[in-house]
């Protein structure tokens, strides 16, 4: 979490934004931004993407998983259930194999595939790094 808090604070500083301003921009409020910057909480799936979109950086950069955010054009991510199924098919990996690689319950992944829930940020990182060997941006469908 500290990587995200440091990176978010750095991005805000570079843009000259305070927590209230960023909370208003993202629609999550100052308290949520304060928790992210303090390392007390992680953003939701949706707010991670909003943060990355606003600052025009990769989700992986926001999370501190990469040191540089190459200038890219990003696609609007499709619904996660469709993207999750697509990545599973492209990588030729079943939910059972993902469970074995990541420790994430198959029932949780079934809910993602059915569109009932979206993964938490820690689960996105697990899926990207250990499950698929890809970036978070590829996993959520932001990479063009």
Molecular structure report:
It comes from Candidatus Coproplasma stercoripullorum. Residues 16-62, 84-139 form the HTH cro/C1-type domain. GO terms for molecular function: DNA binding. Pfam families: HTH_3. Helices cover 62% and strands 0% of the residues. It has 144 residues and is mostly helical. The protein folds into two domains: 2-62, 434 Repressor (Amino-terminal Domain) (Orthogonal Bundle), CATH 1.10.260.40; 80-140, 434 Repressor (Amino-terminal Domain) (Orthogonal Bundle). It is globular, with a radius of gyration of 15 Å.
Order of helices and strands: HHHHHHHHHH
End-to-end Cα distance = 27 Å
Low-confidence stretches: none
Largest beta-sheet characterization? none
How many domain units?
2
> Helix content range of the residues, please?
55-70%
Q: Beta fraction of the residues?
A: under 5%
The number of helical elements comes to: 10
Average pLDDT for all residues: 95
Q: What is the CATH homologous superfamily assignment of the largest domain?
A: lambda repressor-like DNA-binding domains
Topology-level CATH name of the largest domain:
434 Repressor (Amino-terminal Domain)
User: What's the architecture of the largest domain, going by CATH?
Assistant: Orthogonal Bundle
């Amino acid at each position: 979490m500290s990587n995200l808090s440091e990176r978010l604070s750095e991005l805000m500083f570079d843009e000259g934004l305070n927590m209230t301003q960023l909370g208003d921009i993202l629609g999550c409020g100052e308290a949520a931004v304060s928790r992210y910057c303090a390392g007390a909480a992680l953003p939701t799936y949706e707010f991670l993407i909003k943060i990355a979109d606003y600052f025009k950086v990769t989700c992986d950069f926001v999370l501190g998983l990469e040191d540089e955010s190459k200038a890219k054009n990003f696609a609007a991510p499709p619904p996660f259930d469709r993207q999750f199924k697509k990545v599973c098919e492209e990588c030729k990996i079943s939910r059972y194999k993902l469970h074995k690689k990541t420790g994430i319950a198959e029932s949780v992944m079934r809910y993602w595939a059915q569109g009932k829930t979206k993964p938490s940020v820690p689960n996105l990182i697990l899926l990207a790094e250990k499950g698929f060997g890809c970036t978070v941006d590829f996993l959520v469908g932001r990479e063009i």
